[in-house]
Design brief:
Layout: H1 2-31, H2 35-47, H3 49-60, H4 64-89, E1 92-94, H5 96-118, E2 124-125, H6 127-165, H7 171-174, H8 181-213, H9 217-229, H10 231-242, H11 246-269, E3 274-275, H12 280-298, E4 305-307, H13 309-330
Antiparallel strand pairs: 1-4, 2-3
Helix pairs in contact: 1-2, 1-8, 1-10, 2-10, 2-11, 3-4, 3-8, 3-11, 4-9, 4-10, 4-11, 4-12, 4-13, 5-6, 5-11, 5-12, 6-11, 8-9, 10-11
Length: 331
């Protein structure tokens, strides 16, 4: 029955991701806020919610290795698996601010994690480390609000161009349904209840698998749990790519990783000191490496940055290589 509940929970996660696309769009239109600000912040928070609940539940249960490996594994899955799957739907074009500001900030957050782990005795991460993370997260939020006015002006220019070209609404916008505030509130409350209950099931199930097959919790965290908690990012990014909102699709992945590295780890580490698992440094370095690879893939195109099927295949091969090494480590 637990396995059935877990499957139903992940079906709910995927369905919710598509709902969040519509809800975020509704908020942007209702309050006159730049749609890219709403889309990226709201959806990045909510698609990171499974990682948050899973990590905090793991920390409460004393499974520090599962709490940390889930976050790192989710970041790796987002950058390799989710980008690959999304690129299959539509080539991903990244705006200049994503390349020059947001991806470097994600890289800086990954480097910060490595520094905190390396310089702590016995790789025990304490509450002061957590507050360093939240300070960097506040800097990122400040960047978002500084960019909000700029994005809003760009959105207005795009809308004016569309009105000049045609009197009809864009077909992509027509496909996005708007929701009333009451429906949004009810769905949000129901989602929170399902999220907490499902998060407990996932943690209990992960520990059971690890104990039954003699595997370390960290291995389950960076593989099965990381992939499953990344399903909302997958569904959201694919939904955006199908609507040809490629800046949103790649933006959610980058922002979600930043939220994971800073906000979720802060929330988890602030509960109690956590000792990292044995090969955490390799995973952290690999996360930095693939971020640099994505920057290199995007760099030659400069203002026309694309990740298409060819680059996506490279990311997929890197992910399988990473999983092969993880299996080798635990054998």
């Amino acid at each position: 029955m637990d396995i059935i509940y877990i499957i139903l929970w992940f079906v709910l996660l995927i369905w919710w991701a598509n709902y969040m696309v519509n809800w975020a769009w509704s908020l942007a239109k209702r309050f006159g806020i730049s749609d890219i600000v709403i889309w990226l912040t709201v959806i990045a928070f909510w698609t990171s919610a499974p990682e948050l609940v899973t990590s905090m539940m793991s920390a409460f249960n004393g499974n520090a290795d599962l709490a940390i490996s889930n976050v790192i594994g989710s970041n790796i899955s987002n950058l390799l698996l989710i980008l690959w799957a999304t690129a299959l739907v539509y080539p991903l074009k990244a705006p200049s601010n994503t390349f020059y500001k947001e991806i470097p900030f994600m890289l800086a957050a990954s480097i910060l994690f490595v520094l905190l782990v390396i310089f702590e005795p016995e790789q025990t991460i304490t509450r002061p480390d957590a507050w360093v993370l939240i300070m960097f997260f506040c800097i990122f939020l400040y960047y978002i609000f500084r960019q909000a006015n700029k994005w809003k002006k760009e959105d207005k220019k795009d809308d004016d161009k569309k009105k000049k070209k045609t009197k009809n609404k864009d077909s992509n916008e027509d496909s996005i349904k708007e929701y009333t505030p009451w429906i949004s509130l009810i769905m949000t409350i129901g989602w929170l209840i399902a999220l907490v209950y499902g998060g407990k099931l996932i943690v209990d199930w992960a520990v059971w698998i690890a104990q039954s097959f003699g595997l370390p919790n960290s291995f389950i965290g960076i593989t099965i749990i990381a992939i499953w908690t990344s399903l909302p990012e997958l569904a959201s990014s694919i939904a955006a790519a199908m609507k040809k909102k490629t800046d949103m699709a790649i933006g959610w992945i980058i922002w979600s990783n930043i939220f994971n590295s800073l906000w979720i780890l802060w929330a988890t580490w602030s509960l109690l000191p956590l000792k990292a698992y044995s090969w955490v440094e390799f995973d952290a370095y690999f996360n930095i490496f693939i971020t640099i690879v994505i920057l290199i893939l995007l760099f030659p195109r400069k203002w026309k940055m694309l990740i298409n099927k060819r680059e996506g295949l490279l990311l997929l091969l890197m992910y399988f290589s990473y999983i092969w090494y993880a299996v080798y480590k635990v054998m």
